[in-house]
Amino acid sequence: MNPENYIEKIENRFADKNMLDGQKREGKDMIYKEEGYAIRGAVFEVYSQLGSGFAEEVYQEALETELADRKIPFEAQPRLQIRYKGRLLKKIYVPDLVCFGKIIVELKAVKHLLPEHAAQLINYLKATSFQLGFLVNFGTYPRADIRAYPNRPYP
User: Fold this and answer.
1) Is 155 within the bounds of a domain?
2) Which of 3, 15, 52, 58 would you call most buried, defined as having the most Cβ atoms within 10 angstroms of its Cβ?
């Protein structure tokens, strides 16, 4: 199976396409809609200023600056504990950002998102009990690729 089909399969299985673009469809609204729009606005501003082609660390720093300027609460690279069957594991997870204390934001600067990028975020959502994650790719042209993944149980 080619990577694009696999990503689509993952998104269909775990993320419910109605939730991916943040738009109301079929009577369903994206979870944390206002917060999601605020994060997206900051991402688009960073992309409009920098475009594509920089390393992920550059976008991380620029997005942190933009979030602070917009007074969007965030924590950069927090150490989150992972649960397995209700028990805390010794291993920790360090996401790029947590915004509003409840939304994981994973940044990439790659030509194409791969299935493992989406799978990584989905697994972290399940393991941490966060309800929403954004996978943001600044490596695309002509705009940043932002995908929202709600924490859903396996079908």
Assistant:
1) no
2) 15
Which residue intervals of 21-94 are DSSP H helices? 33-50, 56-69
Interatomic CA distance for residues 20 and 64, integer angstroms: 23
Q: Is 40 exposed, middle or buried (0-12, 13-18, 19+ CB in 10 A)?
A: middle
Helix axes 33-50, 56-69, angle to 10 degrees: 120
Rounded to an integer, what distance in angstroms lies between the CA atom of residue 13 and that of residue 139?
A: 25
Condensed to tens digits (0 to 9), the pLDDT of residues 62-85 reads 999 999 999 999 999 999 998 889
Question: Which range of residues forms the domain containing residue 93?
Answer: 3-150
- pTM (predicted TM-score): 0.80
